[in-house]
């Protein structure tokens, strides 16, 4: 199954809502995403991504077989960290374990390093999210350490991992 990233389109709303309206997916993401997730929620998100400053937010639909199966975004930091960006992503559960996340991360990093002045991309998955940690490792990210007791998700105190990819080390 081939993975592609592409800009969001408003007609992606139904597939986006289907991809993220899943507690197993949401349990691995930060809070703030509605559940259940509706097509109206998806349209609101897509509209925001289409209107976003492309220098600060780079967001793509992750597709397989011309169908939206996830989302990936890179968010520029500010102040002294203006050449650093945080990456976040998810894949719909039926597509887990098929290499789509690794492919999307690699494509997005290549795009960011080729088209912006960003020199460092980082991601902070929950430490217990082994699959996401493996995606980052297979994409060339290095684990910089564990952020102990760094988050509360679903009432549980969780560790997070800090991963980064540096442009000068990127192949």
From TrEMBL:
It comes from Bacteroides oleiciplenus YIT 12058. Gene3D superfamilies: 3.40.630.30. SUPFAM superfamilies: Acyl-CoA N-acyltransferases (Nat). GO terms for molecular function: acyltransferase activity, transferring groups other than amino-acyl groups. This is N-acetyltransferase domain-containing protein. InterPro entries: Acyl_CoA_acyltransferase, GNAT_dom. PROSITE patterns: GNAT. PANTHER family: ACETYLTRANSFERASE-RELATED (PTHR43328), N-ACETYLTRANSFERASE DOMAIN-CONTAINING PROTEIN (PTHR43328:SF1). Pfam families: Acetyltransf_3. Residues 3-163 form the N-acetyltransferase domain. Signal peptide: none annotated.
